Amino acid sequence: MRKQSYWGYIFTLPFIINVLVFLLFPIAFSAYISFTQYDLFNAPKWVGLDNWINVLKKEEFWISMRNVFYFALVFVPLQSGIAFIVAFMLNQAIRAKAMFRLFYFLPVVTPWLAGGVVWSWMFNYQYGVFNWFLSLVNIDPVRWLDSKSWVVVITSIALVNVWKGLGQSMIIILAGMQNVPKEVLEASQIDGASGWKQLTRIVFPMVTPMVYMVMILSTISAFHAFDVFLGLFGSIQTGIPERNMIPNLLVYRDSFLLFKMGPASAMAWLLFFVILVITLFQRYFEKKWVHYD
Amino acid sequence: MKKKSSLMLMLLICVLVFTACASNNNNAPSNSPSNGNNGQTQTPDKQVKLTIGLPGSYEVTSKDIIDRFIETHPHIKVEIQEAPWGDFTSKIATQIAGNTMPDVWFQENATILGYGKRGVAEDLAPYIEKDLNASDYIEGLFSAKTPEGQVWGIPHGINPVGLAYNKAAFEAANVDLPTDDWTFADLIEASKKLTIKEGSDTKQFGFIGSYSITNGWFPWIKQAGGSALDESKTKSMINDAKSIEGLKQLRQGIEEGYFTNNDYVKANGGELEVFASGKGAMYFMQYSLQVDMNANFPDADWDTVKMPKAVDGNRYVPMVANSWLVSSRASDDAKGAAWEFLKFYLSDEAQNIVAASGSTLPVKQSAYESIVSSQTKPLNKKAFTEGIAEGGTTLDENASWAEWRILVQQEVNEAIVNQNKTVEEATADAHKKVQEVLDANQ
Amino acid sequence: MTKNTPWPLKLLIYALLLAGAFVMIFPFIWMISTSLKTVGAISQMPPKLIPDPIDFSNYTTAWTKVNFGKYTFNSFFIVVFDMIGSLFSCAVVAFGLALFNFKGRGLIFMVMLATLMIPGQVTMIPTYFIWKQFHALDTYYPLIVPSFLAGAFGIFLLHQYMKALPKELYESAVIDGCSPPGIFARIYLPLCKPALAALGVFTFMGAWNNTLGPLIYLQTKELYTLPLGLLYLKSENVNQALLMAGAVITTLPVVIVYLFAQKHFVQGIASTGMKG
Q1: CATH of domain B161-318+395-440
Q2: What is the mean pLDDT of residues A284-290?
Q3: What does DSSP say about strands B196-198 and B201-204: parallel, antiparallel, or unpaired?
């Protein structure tokens, strides 16, 4: 696109101002704090790399990273995949699709105050509905949220997070599907293409920009997971075991409960770099599967 | 390259600007009660501004007290800053960082101790010595006192724990009602008799097996002769044999089914619901929950006695306090006004209002008359008032309490709630981690 | 799915959608149901979905305990500005990034993505400092001004959408003698309705539910937003039914906005201006 460059600058000006005025200082500040000991009250005391080294030395940090990686691994493909399929179904000639679209969106607006209570109850070892289903088919009950194994716990939470975010991803993809002209779909039908072929050969390529966005966003939000964990576990003071912790909970604990802003900032920035690398990774593969017109 | 270096320059400038701002904020907190005595002799014409921070607003601190204070102190212009109870922490933390905090506010006592250590709170010991008569108050007045003698706060109220019991359940099972002479062994015995099973289901549990710090692991450790920390609050005693013994008793009760288990409590609406609906016959209840009981379960037939005695014959009544603190960065005038407010809060008038609310116990002895003679449930409020007089104890609070209590809770959950570890393993792990935190905070 | 889809497959699809829908809405239904329960009924086992008796008192309590009218007005005030600001500024920036090639474009795009990755918890306090310097504490500026400066989420969404539109759209408009702002306003903006509708819903949701911003920036109670005001219902002694009533009240406007915006997500594309 060989367009007049200066128009590009003019159009992106609002965002540039945003960065210069509201983002530069907070970023610089929190980066600076990560090299200091700061308790929010007394002046920050420079400690150099101590915070970074201490955070990396602590097992709890690596455990939280392991957990959040696994969480993203389960959450992102599931959510993106299901959102795409549901969006496709609800873009079809289905009865009551407006009603369905509302229903699938409701979890997005259901507060964790309600969602957390209901899901914890459903996961209850003795009285929850999931173990009741298992008992019907003679499988032993599972300790979903209080298992000895972090895999079970993180998987359960990832599934709840899929429930919560599905509607949002679905909307984004639905919006993208509006660009798929009806005529193309109809023509393909006449040519004998089945629903599956339509889905994979025609619809999917045309909505890849939106699916791509959903993947990037859900990856970022997976690594930033916080609300879903608190929604299911209650507060940090209830004693969430170390094996189930995620980085953002550690950052919250250190900054607001323990007034250790230094290590909290270091941890937060480490998380940022991890997400950045993964996003760059995803960007690299963008050309291979995302089609812009 | 050009872009990179100009970016670095901007970052450098921001950092320099900030450190300049930060050093301006670092005023040395004044320790002398320069306006404490002036409060009495000061010319009433001088207008002073005072900001009071209220978490939970007038739900928790009666509007009557504030209004009365404003009425009787016309030279003090009061501004109220409110924040919702659960979200107060984020707000006050931001305000402290930005130096926009109120002149006086209240939070959990342990938090106040942390503030004291960092210099956020004004030392009130000199003020108290000058203006108050300690014998007018219960010992709890000094909840925020450090071993070194500083007093970082004045209690907004004391919330102790007592043994609540369901009268109907006792009568139905033909078991003698609890008395103040009970020991924990008596409690365990009775809970066995009060557990009603129907096949594999339990219709009624003898006792609600709480496991949080206030009404769970802390009292169970103390009654067996153990402790979380030692007297100086610098050494962990979590893995002391007696502490282990106490925790084992709690675990055994849950395992053997005469104490409730966590799954049951969660599925039935929480501890208070389980007690109020008759599914649990006994419960270590905090004083403040009487408000909830009377509002939502007025027909429940219940009363309270003091916490059972420990093996050494002493009584340990855990109490949680919320404490007012004065900002060390407030102006001298504001500090004086804040102390006026705290003195008013500790006056007979205000303390009686606190007592009447039922949500917390006042620290002034004269206000206790109205409590003891009150006709609302629980009738035996002496369980709380005399309980703290006899054996009120904080939860071994010190400046690093917020950090180490989480570590202990994690291990208690493993050993007692989920039974993934033995009590010995859990306490060993907890002891190591807690001692690390205590050492780092010396 | 068309008339040609075999009915067993149709049935399966409906069954799956329904099962999924049930899981989706169950907590929401529970929330409404609990808000209508009297206190004694809350912990009844097994839980009844339709309360008996149905008790609206929690809603009246919420209404009286909280300065409803004023707070709702405040919330709407903020949210409307947020939406106008967001939709417009994000569309403008997205247009610039999607349709123009200029030095630094890649960098700006990456920075935009990076802002989504920035840890919010540690930037909250320095941002507070900034607003303190501007003497904007206890005003609505911290809550409104940022949305006029194009947030990353909106930019990303509209960028993806605009880039997927045919390139020829722009070319032919240039040939027709349109200036870039004209092309933006007259051609691209109308075409982006589905994405704008989606962004509108998300912006509304974010702005409406935002309690942290109002919590730390607002002091005067008259300025409070509704969700912040409803947080006061959560005192030390918790009545779950009352809390749920507050939650339902907070949620309803977003649902209504969604219902209105919905049809824009699925308006069939009539033409992309390609023919002829």
Answers
A1: 3.40.190.10
A2: 89
A3: antiparallel
| Mean pLDDT, residues C10-34 taken together | 91
Taken in order of first residue, the domains within chain A and their CATH numbers are: 52-289 (1.10.3720.10)
B125-138 per-residue burial string, b: 16 or more CB within 10 A, e: under 16: bebbeebbeeeebb
Chain B positions in Cβ-Cβ contact with residue C212 (cut-off 8 Å): 90
Q: What is the pLDDT at residue B387?
A: 94
CB atoms within 10 A of CB B197: 12
Residue B316 · residue B307 · CB < 8 Å: yes
How close C214 gets to chain B, by Cα (Å)?
10
Q: Which of C108, C118, C129 to mutate to test the interface with A (most CBs of A within 10 A)?
A: C118
C41 and C111 together in one domain: no
Report yes or no: A258 at the B interface, CB cutoff 8 Å: yes
Inter-chain residue contact C231 with B86, CB threshold 8 Å: yes
Q: Is residue B335 within 8 Å of B103, Cβ to Cβ?
A: yes
CA distance B7 to chain C (A): 13
Q: Do C165 and A166 touch (CB under 8 A)?
A: no
Q: Is the same domain home to C167 and C113? A: yes
Per residue in B316-342, pLDDT tens? Answer: 999 999 999 999 999 999 999 999 999
| Same domain, residue pair C124 and C162 | yes
Q: Indicate whether C263 pLDDT > 60.
A: yes
Subunits next to C (3 or more Cβ pairs <8 Å) are: A, B
- Residue at C257 is within a domain: no
Identical fold, B34-159+320-388 and B161-318+395-440: yes
Q: What residue spans define the domains of chain B?
A: 34-159+320-388, 161-318+395-440
On whether the CB atoms of residues B212 and B409 are closer than 8 A, the answer is yes
Q: C236 contacts in B (CB within 8 Å)?
A: 56, 59-60, 85, 288, 359
Residue to mutate among B18, B100, B291, B299, with most C CBs inside 10 A, is B100
Question: Strands A36-37 and B104-108, how do they pair?
Answer: unpaired
- Cis peptide leading into residue C46 (ω within 30°): yes
Q: Is residue C12 part of a domain?
A: yes
A-facing residues of C in 8-67 (CB < 8 A) are 9, 13-14, 17, 20-21, 23-28, 30-31, 34
Of A121, A148, A256, the CB nearest to B420: A148
Neighbours of B7 (CB within 10 A): 12
Does A113 reach chain B within 8 Å, measured CB to CB?
no
- Report domain B34-159+320-388's class: alpha beta
* Domain hosting residue C18, numbered range: 7-55
Statement to judge: residues C21 and C91 lie in one domain: no
- Name the nearest CA neighbour of A34 among C123, B237, C201: C123
Taking the CA of residue A229 and the nearest CA in chain C, the distance in Å comes to: 16
The alpha carbon of residue A102 is apart from the nearest alpha carbon of chain C, in Å, by: 7
DSSP state of B379: S
**What ipTM did this prediction achieve?**
0.89
Best B19, B296, B359 member to test C by mutation, with max C CBs in 10 Å, is: B296
A neighbour chains, 3+ CB pairs within 8 Å:
B, C
Residue C33 placed within a domain: yes
Smallest Cα distance from A78 to chain B, Å: 29
Low-confidence ranges of chain B (pLDDT < 70): 1-45
pLDDT in tens, A189-239: 677 666 677 777 778 888 899 999 999 999 999 999 999 999 999 889 999
Both C117 and C210 in one domain: the answer is yes
**Which 3-state string (H, E, C) describes A225-249?**
CCHHHHHHHCCHHHCCCHHHCCHHH
Answer whether residue C121 is part of any domain: yes
C122 & C172 share domain? yes
Find how far residue B402's CA is from the centre of its chain: 12
